[in-house]
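Notes taken during the Thursday session

The instructor put the following on the board and asked us to keep it in front of us for the whole hour. The protein is Ribosomal RNA large subunit methyltransferase F. We were told not to look anything up and to reason only from what is written here. First, the residues (306 in total):
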Amino acid sequence: MKPVSSSSALHPRNLHREGYDFALLVQAHPALAPYVRPNAYGDDSIDFAHPQAVKTLNQALLKQYYGVAVWDIPKHYLCPPIPGRADYVHYLADLLAESGHAQSVRLLDIGTGANLVYPLIAAQAYGWQCLGVDIDAKALRNAQQLIEANGLQSKISVRQQPNAAAIFKGVILPGEQWTLTMCNPPFHASAAEAQAGTQRKWRGLGKRPPQALNFGGQANELVYEGGEAAFLTTMIHESRYFAQQCVWFTTLVSKASNLPLVMRELKKARAVRVKMVEMAQGQKQSRFVAWTFQTITMQKSPSSVA
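Then, after some discussion, the predicted structure tokens were revealed:
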């Protein structure tokens, strides 16, 4: 077996930059072996349209590269691509290093889901203290099981958002200080739009789309009334109320067409600094936006940094 082609567009510190070494991954997680087959180019790969194959690949990646021995998700919950998720974390580490906040990092992951992938990677790769937040009680039960199964109670915890319409309100508690937040927002405005997105994904993999809605993901993971634009607008608006409790707020922006809106809203919110970071995984382009309400002087004050 040999690695697939390089994913050189990934962050320089991304452990998956050189592609998947399936021999190494099968050695780490033998359950992956039945799913590994040569692709059309003769390279070892898996069928990325097969949910169990993708989940087993994730288990192998998390075990081999992040020391996560136990990882699983309930049926139909979002099964995220590990390399792209790791990229976001690495670029956040760069942001913190540039602004002088690379030590004693406290991360708030909005919409952590049942998979808990961002906190797992951030805690294991950088030693950050992480809190995963979600509105879904079942997702959080699974996330808590992952924390306990891997002995990560000292690094990761979870908290339920009691208000489905809120983002930071109700989960950032009085007196708490955070170094940064991260989020992969729901980007569909309706179940019908999510269904259309699912169909496109299957066709992109050269497969006949199934009748079921989920390619992977519950409604709350994929859908928000008003879509990504409405979610981001709410997030920016709420962030103002926690300006002194968090140094950097960040979020992925799936649709480039939403960037002008995001920049306008951040200007209206009077963010002091705004950064947009482009990322890429193969042909897929993504980006995240980061903003802060704190001046450099405020950021260096011990009372304002987590």
